[in-house]
Description:
It is a single chain. This protein is of the alpha+beta class. The protein is built from 9 helices and 8 strands. The strands form 2 sheets. Strands 1-2-8-3-6-7 form a 6-stranded mixed β-sheet. A two-stranded antiparallel ribbon has the order 4-5. β1 and β2 form a beta hairpin. The longest helix has 16 residues. It starts with 12 loop residues before the first strand and ends with a strand.
Amino acid sequence: MAELFANEGKRAxxxxxxxxxxxxxxxxxxxxxxxSIPDVAEQYAAGHLLDGDILFISEKCVxxxxxxxxxxxxxxxxxxxxxxxxxxxxxxYGIGLGIPETMEMALRECGTLRMLCAAFVSAIGKLxxxxxxxxxxxxxxxxxxxxxxxxxxxxxxxxxVLGPEDPDKVAREVxxxxxxxxxxxxVNDLTGKILGASDPSLDRDLYPRILKDNxxxxxxxxxxxxxxxxxxx
Length: 233
């Protein structure tokens, strides 16, 4: 089994609350709708896991295995989607709902009324100089939608990827297969969130801080999962 190393430009070791943790990314093949995440985890991660380790998996990887990556060619934004996307803050770390195609999928996922309320609140926030109000109202299902970017791994650089379905269930299935706790994470270079956990006792506040610098990367690293390991010098 090959040794694991941090991705280029990322640190393997981080200190949080006085403890040190290794974050070890694991490279896999490009996960598609033909894959089962427990199978992928068993194939690539199981042999690296030690006592006390926690396996974490990108929500985008999980979603792609669930046929929730929608090609741009299959999305035909309605006029409302073209209007509402103008109310979304354009982050330098991703498209989010800032283009008509992602907004169209958010309308389908979350409902028109919720998205109209989010746009109204966002407009008020902009008048007050506040950002992020749109997603606070739109909720997780809207916030977890990823749009295509030039640095996204093909074929997903031409897709809109929705959030995963039932991430807690996926995490439990993976944990049963590999014999270690599992987290489904949504982490980018700006924020982080635990979407699914195999055990409700896992600290959903601690692990986003351990992963806050996005050790899996955002582009062609092809490392959709990794290991959190407490480090003792």
